[in-house]
Design goal:
The chain is mainly alpha-helical. It is built from 8 helices and 4 strands. The strands form 2 sheets. Strands 1-2 form a two-stranded antiparallel ribbon. Strands 3-4 form a two-stranded antiparallel ribbon. The protein starts with 8 loop residues before the first helix and ends with a helix.
Length: 183
């Protein structure tokens, strides 16, 4: 048996994704959803590749599910908008015809996990002081496409896209124009 055989490519891809998500401090349940691995296997991978006192911190409990941190300030709204744009760019999320409603790409879970990792890594590279963790990015994805608590809106001043609370009053101004006006 050779690990380079094509028949092991899918298993290797899922294994590499699990390692990548562990490095981003994703919770076990999130990794399980994307890779299909059991929780026990994920813990064993984490323990063998990242010793107990290593650089990766393992978070416990359920993934976050609130939208409040995304819309609580212009800065957080800007970060959520940037991350949403990266979701669209990596193909994790697709826009409907009116370019407002977002939907999941319908890709397999491994492709979703890879796209989420790419978007999160780009977010961390583009933002000087990122405040959203991988798990918050995962929550943002679900708020946009599954629960539809957040939506994409367009600014009337700069015509740029931004994330908007679907159930709140929209002043049709992106967080960047909002900060500019109050500066």
């Amino acid at each position: 048996m050779r690990a380079t055989d094509n028949r092991y490519a899918g298993e290797r891809e899922r294994f590499d994704l699990a390692l990548r998500m562990i490095e981003h401090e994703a919770r076990t349940g999130t990794i399980r959803l994307c890779t299909g691995f059991t929780e026990d296997r994920i813990r064993k991978i984490s323990a063998s590749y990242y010793p107990a006192h290593g650089t990766v911190r393992r978070r416990r409990g359920k993934s976050p599910s609130q939208i409040g941190p995304f819309v609580s300030s212009a800065r957080r709204l800007g970060e959520a908008s940037l991350l949403t744009g990266l979701f669209v760019r990596t193909g994790v999320v697709q826009l409907d015809r009116d370019s407002r409603a977002l939907r999941a790409s319908g890709a397999p879970d491994v492709v979703l996990g890879l796209g989420m990792c790419e978007a999160f890594e780009a977010y961390r590279a583009l933002h000087p002081e990122p405040r959203l963790s991988f798990e918050w990015a995962w929550n943002l994805y679900h708020c946009l496409v599954s629960r539809r608590e957040l939506r994409l809106a367009w600014c009337t001043l700069c015509e740029g896209p931004y994330v908007q609370d679907a159930y709140a009053l929209d002043y049709e101004r992106c967080p960047f124009c909002e900060v500019k006006d109050h500066a």
